[in-house]
């Protein structure tokens, strides 16, 4: 895929080939046939970042090909970016090139947008920012109706707020999320909503039982699923994500979720009563009836202890960003559980990356 063009016409064929390749990784496990969820072929990516390359008195957006990492590739249009980013890029670049205060030693521009139209831009510099920069940046922020953050070494200037507010519609209900600069969010908003809907449908109503979620992030899955369970106990290690999660519970009037700032390994130790933690002083683990677990781990997948922990649950909802580590984990989990559903979500069209979802039920 060119940085400036995408092969929209051939996207269905590209997706079929990729889905077949990913599915073949699991051939030895005999999984059900995967349900494949396509992306929009253009304007699907809610985040983008570019180097700003200076030539003479002007600058342009650039990216780098891994095969030639020292040669900038000029990016005049970025068709995979959301419509909001796509439209903003030339207007922002014009403002940068029109003002030396804004462009001086600016080397990176990061965009964070939402399906609901909010926009945050981070301008990253090789110099310290002052009041003059802040005045110019505020003018541009008002003219373009965007949020701007200025960054340099050991400095962060937030003109108004350092997050966007996203709204996802799941089963005809709107859910609202504060998504912070630097915090993890799913880059393909439409496919994210599809994944949440898929997980909700397969979890089913479990009002008499509770949900355990590991790696909960900012509450992306947690909040919609909380309506189907009596209580939810969730873990997350990132301070930024935990802060966002608590704010998002309030935004959505959700009061049946507890989030623990713990790694999955630490929580496993706590649940096994191998260690005690001050962070758990207010939580009575024995009060939970945990029969369903949702995991959405990083690319490394699950550690041994977490695999052993979730194998105790009746139902496992496993969202994976790495088919290879998912396959490794399923080789162990399918000894105790049967895979009832398998889905592929094309979060990153035109690349080899594929998001997977698996539903496992304990064998009788």
TrEMBL record:
Its EC number is 2.1.1.35. GO terms for cellular component: cytosol. Coiled coil: none annotated. S-adenosyl-L-methionine binds at residues 186, 215, 220, 236, 296. Gene3D superfamilies: 2.40.50.1070, Vaccinia Virus protein VP39. HAMAP family: RNA_methyltr_TrmA. This is tRNA/tmRNA (uracil-C(5))-methyltransferase. It comes from Zhongshania aliphaticivorans. The lineage of its organism: Bacteria, Pseudomonadati, Pseudomonadota, Gammaproteobacteria, Cellvibrionales.
